[in-house]
Design goal:
The protein is an all-alpha fold. The protein has helices at residues 3-22, 27-44, 47-54, 59-66, 81-92, 100-114, 117-125, 129-136. The protein contains eight helices and no strands. The radius of gyration is 14 Å and the shape is globular. The termini are far apart.
Length: 137
């Protein structure tokens, strides 16, 4: 299996896990949840913290994370749970029928299972209380 095929397989594994967390089999919905949640999280992080998290993501997931990123506009100052969920909703696009909170919880559950505990702690410690509580639930 080539490196590219392995990268695709790894991304599909993540999408399957997110789908299981969401209770959906639709890979496109799982992708939408992952993309929206990761990009909202990325925009809430400092440039350094975003880069540290991205370094632990599989290559194709890292591409999703960085897609459309403008580091000159971060971190976004979403301090409250609903502000963060609004960021997720803005990234959901045509998949606005997905529950933003469920998407975040599913994505963060998968992140916690694949990213080092130290990096997860760093991400959580950089979040304001309401957002940290949402991610840590």
């Amino acid at each position: 299996m080539s490196g590219f095929e392995k990268a695709i397989q790894k991304a599909r594994e993540w999408l399957k896990e997110i789908g299981e967390e969401l209770g959906v089999e639709d890979e496109q919905k799982a992708y939408a949840a992952l993309r929206a949640s990761l990009q909202a999280l990325r925009d809430r992080l400092t440039v350094d913290e975003a880069a540290q998290l991205a370094a632990q993501l599989p290559v194709l997931i890292r591409g999703i994370f960085y897609e459309g990123w403008d580091p000159s506009k971060v971190p976004v100052k979403a301090r409250h749970r609903e502000e963060f969920l609004d960021m997720v909703r803005a990234h959901l696009g045509q998949w606005d029928d997905l529950d933003a909170e469920k998407a975040v919880r599913a994505t963060f559950a998968v992140l916690k299972s694949h990213v080092s505990a130290g990096e997860i702690d760093d991400v959580l410690s950089s979040m304001p209380g309401e957002v940290r509580a949402l991610l840590a639930a």
